[in-house]
Amino acid sequence: MTTLEADLGEIVLDHGSGTQLSHELVSLIVETLGDVYIGEMEDSAMLPITGGQIAMTTDSFVVDPPFFGNGDIGKIAVCGTVNDLAVVGSKPLYLTLGMILETGLPIARLVRVLTSIRETAREAGVQIVCGDTKVVRKGEADQIYLNTAGVGVFERTPLRMRNVKPGDRVILSGPIGNHTVHLLSIREGLGFEQRVLSDCAPVNGMLDALFASVAEGEVHSVRDVTRGGLAAVLQEYSEAVGRTIQIDQASLPIQFETVMAMDMLGINPIHSANEGCVCLFVDPSAEQEVLDALRSHRYGVGAVTIGEVTEQAKAQVLLRDADGRDSVVEELAGAELPRLC
């Protein structure tokens, strides 16, 4: 245990009792979150919302490991919620923050998570408006679990799966598989984590820049590529529009070290989890314009076209290899990978 951890102590059951220790913990949380927290300690947050339509999402985060090389569960929680709001075309504004803390968690680690939440919320331009903390006994949680809800407003037409059409180009904003390899490498001691970093990032700034650069209606739909990976996203869209989606295996953006690690682990990159990659369905006339806009942002420098939505009226995803042969991408019956986000 470090000196800092010893000075701050550990989470105990009484931190969730509603008594003095609870008040001290809440004060620490509020102080650490700083300017991104605007709660007034009322039972509900009272917030201004302008416009006629909002986006709302919620998610729970049980990341294993909760602390990793270039991030932690706090960063993932903000990014995951912000990204879900951003990909439907809304402007993320507000987040809630619920925490389940295991007794014995060093309070210094909690501060680390809260600091990560604060910095990521600042980058994304969102505010934490209310929250809740529960404490459970040792063994009833894996150090820390988080739950968030997010609210965004629409300043443009919402993006929906049903807008996707035959001929649409399928574009990825960056490499896939890095988040999976980074966390598995730490967990299994593989030694790749220094060369393969998690892609965890809030993508709303990148999408704002994109939407400002192209005409409305040229980007038909966007989805963040998280659990289930690229394969799950493409299969969901294929079923929604009743068309075959064909992708080019050679075009998939995958870091060399990620390929090595996944070969070693027997994992298919298209099923891997990501936390900062989005898949876009774009009118073919705007393909290059969209690529240029994405590549001008630091989170989109690796943007590439990987395929298209075909005219074939059959819900399936085809992967074309270097020899021009197509194989059907099967939907996984269960989890190929352990919990990573």
UniProtKB/TrEMBL annotation:
Domain PurM-like N-terminal: 42-153
InterPro entries in UniProt: HypE, PurM-like_C_dom, PurM-like_C_sf, PurM-like_N, PurM-like_N_sf
Superkingdom of this protein's organism: Bacteria
Domain PurM-like C-terminal positions: 165-317
GO annotation, biological process: protein maturation
Family designation: Belongs to the HypE family.
NCBIfam families for the chain: hypE (TIGR02124)
Name of the protein this chain belongs to: Hydrogenase expression/formation protein HypE
Organism: Streptomyces sp. SID12501
